[in-house]
Known about the structure:
The chain is of the alpha/beta class and 292 residues long. It folds into 2 domains: 7-25 and 104-291, 2-Layer Sandwich (Endonuclease, Chain A); 31-102, lambda repressor-like DNA-binding domains (434 Repressor (Amino-terminal Domain), Orthogonal Bundle). It has 12 helices and 7 strands. A 7-stranded mixed beta sheet has the order 1-7-6-5-2-3-4, sandwiched between helices. The radius of gyration is 20 Å and the shape is elongated.
Amino acid sequence: xxxxxxxxxxxxxxxxxxxxxxxxxxxxxxxxxxxxxxxxxxxxxxxxxxxxxxxxxxxxxxxxxxxxxxxxxxxxxxxxxxxxxxxxxxxxxxxxxxxxxxxxxxxxxxxxxxxxxxxxxxxxxxxxxxxxxxxxxxxxxxxxxxxxxxxxxxxxxxxxxxxxxxxxxxxxxxxxxxxxxxxxxxxxxxxxxxxxxxxxxxxxxxxxxxxxxxxxxxxxxxxxxxxxxxxxxxxxxxxxxxxxxxxxxxxxxxxxxxxxxxxxxxxxxxxxxxxxxxxxxxxxxxxxxxxx
Length: 292
């Protein structure tokens, strides 16, 4: 299988890797948003509702409804559910909800987001912040708020909700196997303040109790380290395909060529051997929580 070409303007904020920052708003008028908008307008007109009345019933302005119908803004899941019921759309709009949500990601990450959502195995190495699949809402908001250049409040809200929606994979049935190796320094960096970090550490303890999730911490004082090249994610699909997702400043890639994926699999195996065990890692997180 060939290796896809590199996609520029990488965004480590909504990627599957270390999930650090996010600088790209949804592509205005992206294909899925245009399709959703046309369907929304069709059902609204079928119901005999003008935009002002439709918006008033759902609590949205006329300009917001117009932006949704024209594919210029990403409608939140709650709006889609309400619109589907009000317009008697027969769940046509609801069935588009996941694809619409992915339109919030940079174009290059949408394939990775789809693979992540359908994966039977995910193995993640993080270096700068807690992975997006493990972030609390407050921590995620702090990460996006710190992004430079600054993001607008509306974009921050959309990105936070998209990130939280991704976390559904943790409880998806059948349960996927998911593991994380996190640098200890990530857990001692109080992004958003002490209260936000305390909540994040508590959340990590809860996630670490899930039967299908293992969290391992790489101690700062380790003299051997197999992951110095940076963060990455290993994905196994239901068809048995093994794919690697790698993020770096301004560049992100999905690797499908077996040689490249195997090299990262070898790195991850060594990282897990060098890191604390899952039980030791949770003990360390409890210790750090007691110190906050």
